[in-house]
Amino acid sequence: MDWFKSLSNVLYVDLARKSYWVEPREDLFSRWLGGIGVATQLYKEEVSSKVDPLSPENVIIFTVGPLTGIYPLASKTIAVFKSPLNNYFAESHAGGRSALAIRFAGYGAIVIRGASERPIYVVIDDSRVRFRDATALWDMRSTETVGRILREVTPGSGHRAIMRIGRAGERLVRYASVVTETYRHFGRLGLGAVFGSKKLKALVVVGRRGFNVPDVSTYREVYNEIYELAVKSPAMKKYHDLGTAANVLALNSIKALPTRNFSSGVFELAGEVSGEKLAETVLARRVACAGCPTACIHIAALREPYPEEPYFYKIKFISYDHEPLYALATNLGIGSREGFLRLLDVVEEEGLDAISTGVILAWATEAYLNGLITEKELLTKLNWGDYESYIKVVRNIVLQPNEFYSTMALGVEEAARKYGGLEYALAFNKVEPAGYHTGPLYFVSLMIGSRHSHLDAGAYSLDQELLASKKQLPKPQEAVELIIEEESWRQVLTSLAICLFARGIYKPDVVVKCFKPLKVEYGVEQLKKLGREIWIEKQLIKRAEGFSPLSLRIPERILKTPTPLGNIDPEYIKEALKYYDLLVSLASKMR
Amino acid sequence: MVKRLVVLDVNKCVGCQLCMLACSRRFGVVGHSKSAIWVRSAGGFERGFTIVVCRACRDPPCARVCPVNALKARDGGGVILDISKCIGCGLCRESCDIGAVMWDYEVNKPVICTHCGFCTPFCPHNVLAVEEVV
């Protein structure tokens, strides 16, 4: 099979009619590369601006890119959908085996339309698609069990991805995730709830095929070069050694580690939940996504005794990273590794986004301590560090036994609008933030970034570079330019569907070289221009959906707690938002 | 000197599957269709991995069951496939209890490990090696 022809195949799946078909879309893949570039265009075709994210009119789009499977670290799948958390165009990325499975099944994109009447799961096995009843899997307490069953009843072990939701997705918690290969997630912005609204319990993709590249000997050469870079670069070694959990102590030392709902940048127990300590005490295994040598996925073994019977234990394997450590440990004042792992395990079982869940728990703790909510709503007491209570609250967010919990399931913004404490409800365009309190550029990026994620532009690094170089803060307009430049280049990387951890390897000239064996010519400037175009496309979609940066709420808490770069001036953020708004208005008028 | 591919320590495998991809790359193919190695989870990523490679049997059952003599025993163990003779019946695959006879679904023929060792430099954790048969 020819590489480009198979990449251009878009598989359409209609859940209402239980039908599927393939359309060759060379038009999209030659113009927009793949990944986020193509997914954005498919979204434009499929979703009009007024669509309710939980209605059958919303779609789920998965894409991979032209380098997927071809080179190491091109191992990501891009999911695009309308977010039920904030009602805008949304994207979420994950690895596991999903990208290679989709690509080797012979597709560049999958578009899932409509909704099923009954719970189903869909099995894409190379060219066949099967719709199977998921009644027996529905309402199961653990996504791990669902994975275990699907492993046994579907074909393609080793060549397969099993993307599934937990009860959180079924019950439409707006920040429910989709779990793939037990430890990887389409975590942010509520893809799990969109699955749930479509009664789609799981999507299994099996890809056993292969395709030919035009210039085999150059391909082997370039592959070897990238492979050497991937296994020898210090940056990738960092991800392999301690993983992103290395950030806990690094951020704590510069007073940028969000603690107790961002009330401080220093956690006195950081040493107990650091990457170093976890590696020393509980790290059991490191695993990799298919097609990546790094093995950044760190898995802890938690040995728990059963209280009712002596010498009776269970061992659970739980993967940890910086973000869950921030959200479910430091930001909740939890300094117990066991407590953190047990809480994270429940979040995983239920299929929730760890970041959003942690931020909501932090708000609830403060609201409870301030008397805005009581035991009557919470059904428990709550205090910093009290992981047993947090576990109960997480279960209740999913089960929603009362009105308070039904509101908690909508996200921290909605909860605080109803119960108060908005000044310490951490959300940016309704999206709960990742774990950095590094400085103003980070928060500007969370507000103007396409998906309001730390990964849009990695601006926490820009703040840290400023700190290290002791340079003056750039003018807000310059900061916006810096952020957009980085975000635009990331559109290229995520259109190629390369893991962003490898951004230091896939520099523009390397990307150009990667295309040579495919007999495709790209220039560095051409790629950068394309990145900027994709960025603009996304901004315009959001604008058409009603996104108005000037009316964004700035949570007061981030202004009160000093960052390593000092206290943030709200005028700085407002100036930045104004400039961003101007840029997008100009782009919009040029259409 | 006859060599064979061996798994040194399966517990060090991280499941990246770069060995599988390397195996297909020998033929200029990107994918799994030409791979003679199979890495799968041992019941979920949480349990680690199973690596299936040809063990280079001295008296290989796959060759014994081949009705058209497409598989011949190799000196020192393992088999050599003459694909022009193969009729794609799949008996060889059924005869291998460890599942080391892979299948190329695109051409409906087996994929047989030649113990060339092309995959070994692409294992980032030195799980695979080629050793001399003694």
- Number of separate helices of chain B: 3
Biggest sheet statistics of chain B: 2 strands, antiparallel
Beta content of chain A comes to: 5-15%
| Oligomer category | heterodimer
Overall pLDDT of chain B: 96
Distance between the termini of chain A: 38 Å
Average pLDDT number of chain A:
97
H/E element sequence of chain B: EHEEEHEEHEEE
Number of strands of chain B: 9
Apparent shape of chain A: globular
Compute the CA-based radius of gyration of chain B: 14 Å
Write the layout of secondary structure elements.
The complex is a heterodimer of chains A (591) and B (134).
Chain A: H1 3-7, E1 9-14, E2 19-24, H2 26-32, H3 35-46, E3 60-63, E4 77-82, E5 89-94, H4 98-104, E6 109-113, E7 120-125, E8 128-133, H5 143-153, E9 160-164, H6 167-170, E10 178-180, E11 184-186, H7 191-197, E12 200-206, E13 210-212, H8 216-232, H9 234-241, H10 247-253, H11 275-281, E14 283-287, E15 297-305, E16 313-320, H12 322-328, H13 337-350, H14 354-369, H15 375-378, H16 387-399, H17 403-408, H18 412-419, H19 440-448, H20 459-469, H21 476-496, H22 508-515, H23 524-544, H24 556-560, H25 570-589
Parallel strand pairs in A: 1-6, 7-12
Antiparallel strand pairs in A: 1-2, 3-4, 3-6, 4-5, 7-8, 9-10, 9-12, 10-11, 14-15, 15-16
Chain B: E1 3-7, H1 18-25, E2 29-31, E3 38-41, E4 49-52, H2 61-65, E5 71-73, E6 79-81, H3 91-95, E7 102-104, E8 109-111, E9 128-132
Antiparallel strand pairs in B: 1-9, 3-4, 5-6, 7-8
